[in-house]
Amino acid sequence: MKKEYIIPIFVPHLGCPNDCTFCNQKSISGEQKMITSNDIKKTIEYFLENVKDKNAYKEVAFFGGSFTGIEYEKQEEFLKTAYEYIKDKKIDSIRISTRPDYINKKEIKLLKKYKVKTIELGVQSSNDYILKKIGRGHTFEDVKKASKMIRLHRFKLGHQMMVGLPESTKIDDINTAKALIKLKPKMVRIYPVLVVKGTQLEKEYENGEYEPISVVQAVETCKELVAMFNKKNIEVIRIGLQTTDEISDPSNDASEVVAGPYHPAFRQLVESGLWYDSIVAKIKKLNVKVKEVQVTVNPIDVNNVIGHKKENALKLKELYDVDLIVEQDDNIKQGKSKIEVTKTYND
Ligand code: SF4
Question: Are residues 127 and 214 in the same domain?
Fold first, then answer.
């Protein structure tokens, strides 16, 4: 399988008329500058020069929330710039992310014209009350309509959802995942809510109206969501915001995060937790007192089976007095495993 590379291009959504309470775009819009075609070219060229695997699958991704919300002429200019590289066979595809209420026939036509392959929609929640509470300015009906239109025109559909939004319970988050699964996305991103400086949510947090969920709560909810998506073969392409200078531990001076379930290895916590649960479930089913268990997995999964800072191995020893041995085997598919009990207390 070809290695996949994303060439990320951040498109600031200047003057976004919406007011999502978790978003700081209003407070930082003065510091933002709209990118130019030249910036796009420079980013792509830089990437193409530096990528080692020349045969890799390369995708230009316009990130930043609402690509189809920016000026129509600008969209066309940006798409055209990236499309030139597709024509020259230097990149393979284009991806954009946008809001569900910014998808219409005219936009679909434009995105088709420049061979955009993937459209990701910021959904956040399937609950209209919560969408209203966070000032999204669209309903879940908009998500349904846009998702249908995207699939009908044979784009690859992606969804982004949030966990721990104001007034959203774990059940609400699970219901959002259920509602998304019905819309048949190919991929999802899951973002636990972080309280960021300069947002309405920061005010709500400061005056006690909003209480963020803890890392443990966020991990528990995300584990359930990932298991649901995995079961339906929907790829979970991100769990948690990427760590940057701004998105880092709230105790760092440079961090823009005030509170919330931030963890630098959030995805690993979720995936390790799922492995831990499956090992424990296997042990509990047996009618013997297990002393040592050997888990054989694809090399990619080894760290997740052992756990962040060996947490799984340590917990198994402490709670069940079981030693964990992890073996690697390239022939086992990623996510699959062979779990064998290698010693029991009766041996
Ligand atoms: S998250 Fe909401 S407020 Fe922020 S840029 Fe996107 S649509 Fe606008």
Answer: yes
| Sheet-wide strand order for 290-297 | 323-328, 290-297, 337-344
Q: Is 123 in the pocket of ligand 1 (CB under 6 A)?
A: no
Q: How far is the CA of 272 from the centre of ligand 1 (A)?
A: 32
CATH code of the domain covering residue 130: 3.20.20.70
- Does 190 sit in the ligand 1 pocket, CB within 6 Å? no
Q: Is residue 274 part of a domain?
A: no
272 assigned to some structural domain: no
Atom of ligand 1 nearest to the CA of 13: 5
Domain count, the chain: 2
Q: Could you give the C-alpha distances from 152 to 21, 260, 336, in angstroms and in order? A: 32, 38, 33
Q: Which domain holds residue 174?
A: 4-264
Q: Which of the 8 DSSP states describes residue 281?
A: H
> Which CATH number is 296's domain given?
3.40.1260.20
Per-residue model confidence as pLDDT tens digits over 186-227: 999 999 999 999 999 999 999 999 999 999 999 999 999 999
266 Cα to the center of ligand 1, angstroms: 24
CA angle, corner 89, sides to 88 and 94, nearest 5?
Answer: 100
Token pair 């710039």: residue: 81
Do 248 and 299 reside in the same domain of the chain?
no
Residue 121, helix vs strand vs coil: strand
For a mutational test of ligand 1's pocket, the pick from 11, 18, 102, i.e. the residue with the most ligand atoms closer than 8 A to its C-beta, is 18
What is the overall mean pLDDT for the chain?
Answer: 93
On whether both 227 and 253 belong to a single domain, the answer is yes
